[in-house]
Specification:
Chain A has 18 helices and 22 strands. Chain A is of the alpha+beta class. The radius of gyration of chain A is 26 Å and the shape is globular. At the A-B interface, helix 11, helix 14, strand 13 and strand 19 of A face helix 11, helix 14, strand 13 and strand 19 of B.
């Protein structure tokens, strides 16, 4: 592991997103999602199931106050492990915990999104709202530092008794992420201190020392949250605690088996699989296959990558790389979706990627973004950034409607609405986005990711700025005592023209590392065009870039020209990045052009569900067919792969460029036809196919959709 | 409805199966299944979950005896609604009911199979075993006639309190089917009288009269069982009770909603679907779509057909025809399998026929055989017999291994063993047959169907014998006071040559109605060959015969020749049957030849799962590809439909003719290949495909299988 290559995201206070595309998404989050979410967690959304989140915090705070006022106060104990009835009258109920056992995170995810949003769009009223809510939340904390209202209200004797199923350490993780974000955005440390006190309490309970609990989270996130807390506070204990959770995971005898308070006890036959779901079947360094609940998995891997980087742990990094490759090369939809089954929202086996039954949870794609950036921080290799970009523009953004008001939890690649309504196997696949979810994980996760998108666009080390995503932004890069202003203007995701403008009053020695996207087959830099081979895999230009390295150096002559034209003293290509090293002064514009082309993509023939089918991509965007443009029975359509005659229609559909192509439609059987008949070659009629970006599907009412279309 | 066309199955005492194919199946049932089943219901199968069936009967009989001896004896009441733990020591347990709440039917299905078997293969020891068991069962009956040990043992106050979920009327139905069969086979009426007493008790409880219960069975079967009881006893009350159950079903307000003892109360959102599962969402005459639990559905439709016939109810017959057409034209696998989802073992929506997730329960195919024969009894239309034949040779027999020792409950049309092991969505699909089932419905159902197969081969009316299935057999047909001996010799299912030999001492006026199978495109009768059009649908010879009518008359000239050569005075073709009417005397051989051809079949393009694919059939048999003959990755294979060059290999695989054909294999990606790549035309290598009869799949260990193969 080469620590010299490590990089960190920029503080969101030092980078402002100005990008047309992302600014629009951020505004949706700021003006629609965050206010809606606030109403939701205060039970103020008419017609929606109440969250009870803030009510739970208030009740916990009340109980604390009562006990402080009267030490002999006997708090009632509730044996119900999870109580989630939707009440008739939420204000007139028994004093007890309501909602999912991780209901606290409705607030902590909200405050995290708020924090990021404040860095990009200051808003005193919103900040005051958050400050007031933080007061309530902090008051709910027990004197010993513990803070999970489910157990505070229900039965404090049961704290940490069921790590496998319940979510205390998950709640801690989200609290910590929110607290660090709020501290970094506003400088206010009240919530941060609360998170630290909770972390300290956990640290006093868990650890390698004799007598301490050897457990680890049932739903991972604390691992990466503790690393953020370590960054924010410098306290090594938090780093060590994260490592402890990671190191202990999956060792035998299984910690989870020692817990007695499980709601569901596995049957004997379940034994071989029983810890897969939690990625606790093997020590993490021995895990080679991504298994179990996909969100849990990628949250864990993200934490592992953090610890690998911060502790220089090669074996942990190797495990991360193996797991990354396993996902990207065996278990990922072309949209970046992961977790192909709704049973446990989980990974299945290699190449099992059903399109119409996909789970591909929005949160899992978001988790892959977390994982990707952490791998990039260790190794600036474009294969991580390529997947990150693919996730963002496809599997993540498909989770939110264009108006920011409705959401997909599940992101299928093929939808027949009738199946979603009538076939229980597909009830998890919603043919239209939903307003909100009782288990509200995806919308707030989109909110916090979109609001913090700038921290994924670039990372930096002392003298290098890595541009992973081409996103319009303005940033300050410190190099020693000096500061460089950098402004990026980008036409992404539909136009590959980018300008990186460097401005500095005094000459600064600095390297710019610019990603060469996997989907681009050439690139023009200030008028100098690279050869194709410079930008793609060693196997030539026919490979789609999912996780492909772009590790071939451009010919020296071209690199020399690139250096000349950009004013750099040295240019090189490594792992899919163009490195421009030099001493920068005054204004330097670097104009990049990555021509976007329409590509027909096929899946590995081991993917049974995609056999005989192709998908269409344009730049980083995966496209799809919708009933609105192509009539129903999309399965009867075929793309003429030999003569597609693709045309881009700028502003074709919902403001995005659509793509037309030559296709054929197979004839339907006549009404009343039998189910089976003697084979005859099918009758095909020429037709035009119209594709739109996948993430925009289902913004025009219910209808069929497919990413994969039959080829001919 | 034309009552002159009605027919009835022959008594099994008047028809003996001599057929090579079916005799073998019957011997498997007689020598393997029936003894195994007896051991199972007496908990004598080492390693298998005990049935407790006979123990429950004995305990119920004991409780009855105690109460008779001591009228103040207070029987303990058990509130557990279903208790199915597998005990460590089954002989040393609390005195209570064990097993599924329909555990009584383990015996009643067994005794039914035994009864049929005794007609074909007398066996005094087996009969004695059954007699002794019947004594135990009859002793369990309450004095009032009630007989379901679940309620007798648990809580007699709860009798008939939960018709929807519990299975009292289902248990009654199987008791009655078993009792009638045993009476008809042996002339012994002890069990029949017990069934009658139970029927009388039910009749006293349910009915249109004021104060009587207006309920109906949650799991249908009593409807057709009561009709058999009516046939056996002549008691019209039983016919009326069956009609009462059918007429009341699905009327509003829903009877099931008035029951309070349901284990699962539907949530408000479930309302529109909540009675689909039980086919109780609409009055039966208004039902136009087959819905819900497939076995329940076809058992109901069978009962409806019985009542339609016996009461001349045209509206009920119309409902049966509509439901039949809905299944056959919209919801049936090419193998005859029905019920395409494991969720509720149920029908889904039209054209939803996933091959790898099929449920296609063996019992549901058996139920379709019941339904088909009852429709045939009303209307001798070959489309019913064609489906019946297809079911038997494919979807039914696939349920049992060639050695009679293991069974499929679920009959998929495509299997990837890895998916069955690793993907919870497919856990219901077993890649190998199982020894027995805790819920033992399919194996005993195969046993009773196979043992009584002769009652599906032929039906008769006064002066006509219908031959629906060409099966080697010897039968006596009474025409008035006279008796005709008929012997059928058949090469089915792999050879279409059949001889129907009629022998009578005195001249007898009689009609023979011989089915013209849908899969045959011509037929030679005593040397006279029909034209193709005579045997198929009006649309020509390109339609596969699933439910297709074969209702075009042969040209008069040919019919005249056929009459001449067979010695009949008149020949005609109607609804897919060749009618030979004449006065028969001495010996007459009618030699039929239905040349079997290999056909490539395609599905209606609305079946998304079969698009671009074809299946191969030979005569009545659906064929499939297995890994054992074609290597793995069957999805990479394609059949050269333009030049298949089919060859039949007699005794090719496991003693059955296999079929070879020209095919292509798509190249696998190289090891380590990425998931996605830029499309290039696929590379195909010529190969030979080897097909074997579907019902024989998985008799050579675990491996991939598919019925549908990609076409090119």
């Amino acid at each position: 592991m080469d620590a010299k290559k490590f990089s960190d995201p920029l503080s969101l206070r030092d980078i402002k997103v100005t990008d047309n595309f992302w600014k629009n998404e951020m505004e949706l989050v700021r003006t629609k999602v965050i206010p809606y979410q606030w109403d939701a967690l205060n039970d103020n959304v008419p017609g929606a199931a109440p969250s009870f989140c803030m009510k739970n915090y208030k009740l916990a705070a009340d109980l604390n106050a009562r006990k402080r006022a009267n030490p002999s106060y006997e708090q009632p104990v509730w044996t119900t492990s999870n109580f989630n009835l939707v009440p008739e009258d939420i204000n007139n109920r028994e004093e007890r915990f309501y909602g999912f056992l991780f209901q606290d995170t409705d607030f902590t995810k909200w405050v995290e999104a708020v924090a990021y949003s404040l860095t990009q769009h200051p808003d005193a009223a919103l900040e005051q709202l958050a400050d007031d809510a933080i007061d309530v939340v902090c008051a709910a904390q027990l004197d010993n530092g513990y803070l999970d209202t489910f157990y505070i209200i229900n039965d404090q004797k049961k704290i940490f008794s069921n790590l496998r199923d319940n979510h205390e350490l998950y709640c801690f993780g989200h609290l910590t992420e929110g607290a660090v974000a709020y501290y970094e955005a506003t400088g206010k440390d009240k919530l941060l201190k609360t998170a630290c006190r909770f972390a300290d309490y956990i640290d006093s309970h868990f650890g390698p020392e004799e007598g301490k609990c050897k457990g680890y989270p049932g739903h991972e996130i604390a691992e990466m949250a503790l690393v953020r807390l370590y960054h924010a506070t410098g306290e090594e204990r938090y780093l060590n605690l994260s490592r402890f959770f990671i190191d202990g995971r999956g060792r035998q005898p299984y910690y989870f088996d020692s817990e007695v308070d499980h709601k569901f006890t596995p049957k004997p036959g379940d034994a071989p699989l029983r810890h897969f779901y939690h990625q606790a079947h093997l020590p993490v360094r021995e895990q080679t296959e991504a298994v179990g609940h996909a969100v849990r998995a990628v949250y864990l891997y993200s934490g592992m990558a953090d610890i690998a980087r911060l502790t220089g742990d090669e074996s942990l990094l190797a495990a991360c790389e193996t797991l990354w490759d396993n996902i990207v090369n065996k278990k990922m939809y072309i949209t970046g979706g992961i977790g192909s089954t709704n049973h446990g929202e989980a990974f299945t086996y290699a190449y099992d990627l059903p399109n119409d039954m996909a789970y591909a949870e929005t949160c899992a794609s978001i988790g892959m973004v977390f994982f990707a950036r952490r791998m990039l921080q260790i190794k600036p290799d474009a294969r991580y950034a390529n997947v990150m970009e693919r996730e963002l523009f496809n599997g993540v953004l498909s989770g939110m409607a264009l108006d920011g008001k409705s959401f997909f939890y599940v992101n299928p690649l093929e939808v027949l609405p009738e199946a979603c309504h009538k076939d229980e196997r597909k009830f998890h696949v919603k043919p239209v986005r939903q307003k909100w979810f009782g288990c509200a994980c995806c919308p707030p996760n989109i909110a916090r990711l979109v609001s913090s998108i700038a921290s994924y666009a670039c990372t930096e080390r002392e003298d290098t700025l890595f541009v992973h995503l081409y996103m319009g932004c303005e940033l300050k890069k410190k190099v020693g005592e000096k500061e460089v202003s950098i402004r990026i203007v980008s036409g992404f995701p539909y136009d590959g023209k980018v300008t990186v403008a460097v401005n500095t009053d005094t000459p600064v020695g600095m390297t710019l590392a610019l990603r060469l996207p996997d989907w681009a087959t050439e690139c023009t830099i200030n008028g100098v065009t690279t050869t194709k081979v410079a930008l793609c895999d060693g196997t030539g230009d026919t490979l789609e870039g999912f996780g492909n390295k772009a590790n071939i150096s451009a010919p020296d002559a071209i690199l020399t020209k690139i250096a000349e034209t950009t004013g750099a003293s040295f240019a090189s290509v490594s792992d899919g990045y163009l490195y421009l090293t030099g001493t920068w002064s005054g204004n330097t514009d670097i104009n990049l052009d990555f021509p976007m082309t329409i590509r027909i993509i096929a899946a590995n023939p081991s993917v049974r569900e995609d056999i005989g089918k192709v998908a269409v991509t344009y730049g980083p965007m995966v496209y799809c067919l919708e009933e609105a443009d192509n009539k129903n029975n999309l399965h009867l359509l075929r793309l003429d792969c030999a003569h597609p005659d693709f045309k881009i229609m700028p502003d074709g559909i919902l403001g995005a460029p659509s793509i037309t192509a030559n296709g054929y439609r197979e004839e339907k059987a006549e009404e009343g036809a039998k189910l089976y008949h003697v084979y005859q070659p099918v009758k095909l009629t020429k037709c035009q196919l119209t594709f739109l970006p996948y993430y925009m599907w289902n913004n025009r009412g219910e209808g069929e959709m497919t990413v994969w279309v039959r080829s001919m």
